[in-house]
Structures are given as C-alpha cells and as structure tokens.
Amino acid sequence: MLGSDGTKKLSFRQSIRDGDLVIVYEKRDVMKAVEVCETSVLQNRFGVFKHSDWIGKPFGSKVLSSKGGFVYLLAPTPELWTLVLSHRTQILYIADISFLITYLEIVPGSLVLESGTGSGSLTTSLARAVAPTGHVYTFDFHQQRAASAREDFESTGVSSLVTVGVRDIQGEGFPEEFSRLADSVFLDLPQPWLAIPSAGKMLKQDGTLCSFSPCIEQVQRSCETLNSNFRDIRTFEVLLRTYEVHEGKMDSFQSNEGVSLRSPPCKRRQRSSESNTVHDSSSSPAVMARPCADARGHTGYLTFARLKCLS
C-alpha cells in the first residue's frame, strides 16, 4: 500500500503486511480491493486463497490457490484504486484525471481546493501529484460521504496529504482561511457558477480553476460567470478509445511471388483450377488490434480558466 514518511513523501512498501490494502487482479476486467487479514481467506472461481500466504510477499506477486488457480497482488496505485473503489457518486476516470492535473498545472508543493469529494477518485490522484510538500483540501456537503472518503484515504495511505471537510461550497463558499493561498481549484458541483466567485477569492494571482459538468448547459452558464474575473477560458471533452491487441490466426494465401496476403473477401475459397496465381495455405499467426466493445464514451466537460491578474 501507499505509505508516507515524516516528510509526507509517498512510496510503496516493498512487501505486504497484515492490514494492508491490496488490489487482487483476477483478469483484465476483474479486480477487487482486499484488506489483508492473517486469519482471512479469499474465495473465488480460481479457488481459496489464504491471506496468511500473502504476508511478506512483494507487491506484484502471483499467488496460488488450494486447487492451483492464481491471482496477482497489486499495490493500490491511484489508477487501480479508481477502477475498484466503491461508487458513492459518479466518478472521474483516468483520462479526465490525467488531463485536468496537467491543465491545472498541479505539481509537488501545490495547494489544491476541491469540491465535492464524492467517491475520492480524483482526490487520490491529486494527493500523489502534490506530494511530498503540498496538500489537498476537499469538501463535500454530505457528512457520511465525507466520513467514508476519510476512511478510504487512510486505507490508500494518502491521509497525510488530504484534509476532508464537510461544507456546502455552493451555498457558503470556501473557508476564508484559504484566501489567496490556493494554486488550483476544482469544482464538481451541480451549479458550479454559484461557487466560482468564492473560488476566485481563494486563488493566487494567475491561479487556475477547473469545473467538471456532464451537461453543456452547465458549461455555458459557468462560462458566463467566469468571464468577469477569469481569462483563457476553455472547455474540453476527453474521449478515450481503447484497443485490444492480441495474437490470433487469420487465413492467408500466397501469390506466385511468395508474398503472403489476406484471403480474398469471398464466400467460397477459390479452387486451384480457377486460378493459377493463388494457393490454399493454412492459417498463419498474426498480431491483431481492434477497438474494445465496451469503450467508455462521454463522461463530462472540463472547463478551465485562469484568474486575471490583480491590477
């Protein structure tokens, strides 16, 4: 799991200990977060796995079950945590997260304000981006959701870099104690335009803001509010297309010159008597790539703006 020393530097422990959080990888699209307990077992279609066998092994280890099946024990990086966490709200995924961290210019030492916390998917990545000397202050109006997020940050080892507050940012704005201290502000709210004036007061000169909204009408109204105190206003939609790459077999035929080509697109293979230029041959292995059938489409719009310099 992620650990932190006195300087809040994030690092992964070399070996798994009792009480650690691990990501159990069964196959590409089947992973789960498991807290290691020496007396517990994990049972799945591959067999029964004793947690006691995991303790002391390095992250990334392949472990066997009682009947010979296996899983991999992975460290809970922010990327993997995003894929296995409990969804208390709609979350941001890796494509949006990586884009906004870059565009908000978040670097080690940055002070970042976030509202709302939600399931904590983005917050975990923000914590790693600001480590070892920065800090993320995240707010959610829902008390139980905030409490669950604190527990998750403890489990993933980023609690020293994240402070979770319960506050209605749309109605109350950000706490005045952060006035002119924030390098970046992120808003994930139903009515972000209500929080934009407060966000502008929190930012340092030339600070950056990002608002995530699923609907273009929210974007339009937010941009109207941003125009008064912000510049360089831009909106992006990040669409990710994933490909499956694997080795398989495809039919081929050879010309007289010996060049291997794909089979012609016909229902019946040509007979040798019908053509003296092609010959039947067995299927040959090839590396093939095709788009994944479950590719994720629209998630939301990311609107960025930079605070105007004070005169």
Task: Please provide a written account of the structure.
The chain is α+β, with helices and mostly antiparallel strands and 311 residues long. It has 3 domains: 75 residues, Vcp-like ATPase, Chain A, domain 2, CATH 3.10.330; 171 residues, Vaccinia Virus protein VP39 (Rossmann fold); 43 residues, no CATH class. The strands form 6 sheets. Strands 11-10-9-12-13-20-14 form a 7-stranded mixed β-sheet, with helices on both faces. Strand 9, helix 3 and strand 10 form a beta-alpha-beta unit. Helix 1 packs antiparallel against helix 3. The relative contact order is 0.12. It comes from Dovyalis caffra. Pfam families: GCD14. It is found in: Nucleus.
Classify the secondary structure makeup into a structural class: alpha+beta
Q: Which percent bin holds the helix content?
A: 10-25%
Separation of termini? 47 Å
DSSP helical segment count? 7
Q: How many separate domains make up the residues? A: 3
Quaternary structure type:
single chain
- pLDDT < 50 stretches: 4-8, 277-281
Q: Can you tell me the CATH topology of the largest domain?
A: Rossmann fold
Radius of gyration: 26 Å
Question: Largest sheet, described in full?
Answer: 7 strands, mixed
**CATH architectural name of the largest domain:** 3-Layer(aba) Sandwich
Strand content: 25-35%
Task: Going across the biggest sheet, name each strand in turn.
Answer: 11-10-9-12-13-20-14
Shape: globular
Mean pLDDT over all positions: 87
Order of helices and strands: EEEEEEEEHHEHEHEHEHEHEEEEEEE
Strands, count: 20
Within CATH, the superfamily of the largest domain carries the name Vaccinia Virus protein VP39
Q: Please give the CATH class of the largest domain.
A: Alpha Beta
